[in-house]
Amino acid sequence: MEPTPEQSPHHAYPDHWEADVVLRDGGTARVRPITTDDAERLVSFYEQVSDESKYYRFFAPYPRLSARDVHRFTHHDYVDRVGLAVTIGGEFIATVRFDRIDDRGRPASAPADEAEVAFLVQDAHQGRGVASALLEHIAAVARERGIRRFAAEVLPANNKMIKVFRDAGFTQQRSFEDGSVHLTLDLEPTAESLAVQRAREQRAEARSVQRLLAPGSVAVIGVGRAPGGVGRTVLRNLLGSGFTGRTYAVNTSFAEDLGTVEGVPAHRSVGGIGEQVDLAVVAVPADRVPEVVAGCGEHGVQGVVVLSAGYAERGAQGRDRQRELVRQARSYGMRIIGPNAFGIINTSDAVRLNASLAPESPKAGRIGLFTQSGAIGIALLSGLHRRGAGLSAFISAGNRADVSGNDFLQYWYEDQDTDVALLYLESLGNPRKFTRLARRTAAVKPVVVVKGARHSGTNPPGHAVPVSRIPDATVSALMRQAGVIRVDTVTEMVDVGLLLAGQPLPDGPRVAILGNSESLGLLTYDACLAEGLRPRPPRDLTTEASPQDFRRALAEALADRTCDAVIVTAIPWVGENGEALTGEGEVLAAALREAASTGPGKPVAVVHVEMGGLAQALAAATSTAARPSTAARPGPQPAAPDPQAQTSAPATPGEDAAATNGPDPTDGDGATGGVTTDGPGTADGAGPTDGTGPSAGRIPAYPAAERAVRALAEVVKYAQWRRHAAAPGKVPEFLDETIDEHGTAELIETLLGPDPDPRGRPLTHDEARELLARYGVSVRPALPAPDPEAAVAAAAKLGYPVALKTTAPHLRHRADLGGVRLDLVNENALRRAYDELTELLGTPAELRPVVQAMVPRGVDTVVRATIDAAAGAVLSFGLAGAPSELLGDTAHRLVPATDRDVAELIRSIKAAPVLFGWRGAAPADTAALEELLLRVSRLVDDHPEVVSVALEPVVVATQGLTVLGASVRLAPPPARSDLGPRRLPSY
């Protein structure tokens, strides 16, 4: 039973409820409101549901829907009666609806806040997590419409549905009445429901990536009829990698009697294959892609790699074409890598997939590599190849319209074949989600990121994602907080990645330096100091040192408990005739390998200068020679035009590499590599702990001391973060006792008014003081002084000594411009200061002077919290004035901040020594400052309407602190996509 349309007014179609979701098995589906046009779809869907499922839904045999049923289930007002459907290929696979009810279970309208909910999932799609995803979305819709509880009646035998409700994480009550289970769910999100939602999201998105990287069969669509072209190149690379699955070549222009191409079955369409195709690699012109994607979707293809160009990188028209491509693929349950992609590689021996334009697969290893640039991807593959490193997977996602770096973080988080994740990113589509996923992944394995397009203020062509206005320095600080190792160049990314993949994490910053060159040792020592490490004086083995001397010295350093890492420096041995001796490099490599294999688990790095023999020996020990090929792999050759072969795609590998115009990741006197030892593998997740993996114990070598030291410094900071992450901070309980959260919410509602301006409004001084006081933040009153008499009256009220300050925007917080007069001890001093201000700087109306009581001397600081629509709430701290405004010495942390976060925030600015007794001064009360930061963090976290807070200056004395100025801005809260139901981004 439900209210009639007359009882509940109809509302416009809520298109913001539409969403694409990833299901448990990695496939995608679309959730959308049911409309009056869905009658035929509903009937067709119901006919495919088993009698048992119908019985569970209606508690009685219900073989078909009547016309009245169809009308009832397709006509909703989207307020009191709502229906959602899950669709694949445009057809229903599941439905859910709720009807608002009163406390007696009868149809009702607002303000009733309870609704009856019922689900129905097609039997063929049960077990895919459809109902769980639907529950998240229908619960979010209900909360939006003012519904706080769901009631459901479930037959005891319907264990699957009972489990969906039980496992959702919502607070619930259950009872048994009249032969059915009565469930009541409180729809307010809980920590448990959010954890359940994110765990399901991780499993689903990881599975969707796994389906792309480990297909059982691949069809290359757009294979040219003659040798050459993108499609033919990918096919040959796929065959050359020894792919373990089935391979097919597809081109609509193939002759009907053509049986094979390159030794694999040739077909004119995916439908003509007649067998399951898991992955399609598309290399056809952009205007032919929709036809190809439709064919793939209709025949059950699970994922598509689109190499074709001509999308968002070509402007507005291409951006529309890209959006339509994503919508089309998702409507069939498929995910897309690309468009404008370079391809994907999986080196697992069980798969051996090279569905890319890279002519040679890298050696199997423990590094996962994701890049948004084909050119950078080629350079990284080449650099890692020359340095003897192997990969677990390589993904060059191009415009990354669908599958992104976030998806691969979900996958690598639990991938047993990947120990280090390297990402080259040019845009962050969802920074809030990225930092959350990166923090979780970094807690178990390193994540190294290079961020391109840092200072352009725009996204690169092709990246149709929201532009974040958050400064790059803030992005870097937030990545650090999440445990991400952010480096500036791809060269540094390779340097750091090799050290992480082959060596254990250090226990601290103490570094032993040994080698046969005093000068090179001193350069390394200086570099360590510059990077914040604690080097021991270099041990000079002299130029007479033999490889066995190196072995003994390295073994002693590794056994020394006063050092945490070792850097070995080496220069060539010179014979009596002044020529470098040959063959010694190989012997030295063996000696270092022997010492490292028997010593304690500490990281070792080698710095060499012009030692080709050593570099070659290190690289040869982990050669990336290609596996035996099953087919010839000549490079791309000119071919006659083909109506389906790709004509607009990324350049060939050689062309792309030449177009990078940047440094080679291996620059610096040629090949540098690593040597595999027989010792323990990488500790703490940075490598196989049993020492048997491909990267176990590889010693990385560097052609310059600065590169080795910089890589080690990043690893030391990451290891420290890992240790801290094992015991995360907390928010002190005493805050709860001094915070009025409910009263603040009421005050904010009053200040915003019944119809708030979407742009928000700044609070007056008194309003800001009242709001902040409810969170235990006391702001020193500032009384207006529009004339000398008012200033004298204000001083009499506050008590001498006082300060006279201008609050005009161009003079605010600018004591250097003469807009602040301090320590005015009597009326005469105050009047004299007032006259001087108005004579030098302007009229009182222009200056807006105020009077404040003097406070104890201290360090002037500034505390800010702002909301970035993409990154979320950010807490910032710095010293007031030139350090933060001129030099940019400001630190940042994501909100909510813990006690550990705020302690690190204070100490991470360069000027931090000023707070801790610099040059004999008394230390400031940093404990009081940490408490203030926690209170501000809690305020913006509890009340998203508080979109900005600025406390300036905050004078931190030896005991206590004083907030002298505060500005607060309120606005309707921005949408929190990370707290809503799971959904794929739509740009």
Task: Describe the fold and architecture.
With 987 residues, this protein is an alpha/beta fold. The protein contains 29 helices and 40 strands. The strands form 6 sheets. An 8-stranded mixed β-sheet has the order 1-2-3-4-5-6-8-7, sandwiched between helices. The protein is flat. The two termini are 40 Å apart.
First-last Cα distance: 40 Å
Neighbour order of strands in the largest sheet: 1-2-3-4-5-6-8-7
Number of helices: 29
Question: Based on CA inertia axes, which overall geometry fits?
Answer: flat
Major beta sheet summary: 8 strands, mixed
Global mean pLDDT: 86
- Which percent bin holds the helix content? 25-40%
Number of strands: 40
**Uncertain runs with pLDDT below 50, 5 residues or more?**
1-9, 622-696
Strand content: 15-25%
Question: Could you say which structural class the secondary elements and strand pairing correspond to?
Answer: alpha/beta
| Assembly context of the chains | single chain
Radius of gyration based on Cα positions: 33 Å
Features:
single chain; 33% helix; 29 helices; 987 residues; alpha/beta; eight-stranded mixed beta sheet
Brief account:
This protein has 987 residues and is an alpha/beta fold. Helix content is 33%, strand content 21%.
